[in-house]
Amino acid sequence: MNLPAGLTTRPLALADAQAVADVTSTEQLADVGETDTTVEDVLAEWQRPSYDILTSTVGVLEGGRLVAYGDLAFPEAAYTAVLPSHRGRGIGTALADWLEALARSRGAALLSTQVPAAGPAHRLLAARGYAERWTAWDLELPEGAVIDARPLPAGCTVRDARPAEHPIVHRVVEDAFGEWRTPLGVEDFAALVWERPGHEPWNLRVVEGPDGELLGAAHVFLSGDAGYVARVATRHDQRGRGLGSAMLADAFARAREHAAQRCYLSTDTRTGALSLYERVGMVVTSTWVNLATDL
Length: 295
Fold this sequence. Notes:
The chain is about 30% helix and about 30% strand.
């Protein structure tokens, strides 16, 4: 990598997870005024069976301190972060060069990443020819606000998922999300959900129908002082019955029961759900863009 004197690089290791979370959080605080990255998020991504941390990451260090990193997290998607104090030194350009070369060597047709709209990373990548694919938003339910969910259909209940139901939860969620992204295999899905560090039974909630079938699922967990809803999915043949709003209200309520001071989630233009979340009282706190370049 073409880096200034005094900087070194090496592959990352599991022991670097906290440092990566800290660099990412510092960058997010500078760019959008808040952060939603924890060490558990980093470890969950890195423990996916399909992922190899040794060959997919690079850390940039100054005197032994991590100041930036790059991570080809998926075949065509990367994560990066640079401490604001180290911007303007060519680190972001060097990371982009490295990640593009790595993705190309693995046969990827494109490389994408998601960055704060109009921020330094957005400007850097736009200058490199990256094109915008979609807009994404973080939304928060203000403290004290509640979501009035539609009543569940007769005979339906919301409860914790049972371990034996995990494969069904995976199928319901990935069938829904697979409409706009490549579905995750069950082992990678498990690493991000029920094998996520700190997972508790209340983090995975399901809607059970009167016949015992699972009609939908929601994944919620604590992220610092906040409750984060990572996934809400309704089975295709059950949409339009109010299950999504019921699961969302339930997820936020469970998070608050476990000391969450605020609740939030993320969505993007592919889902068409922004207006739905705003109608139930959520407000946009930051705007992001997904950018990609052909390789």
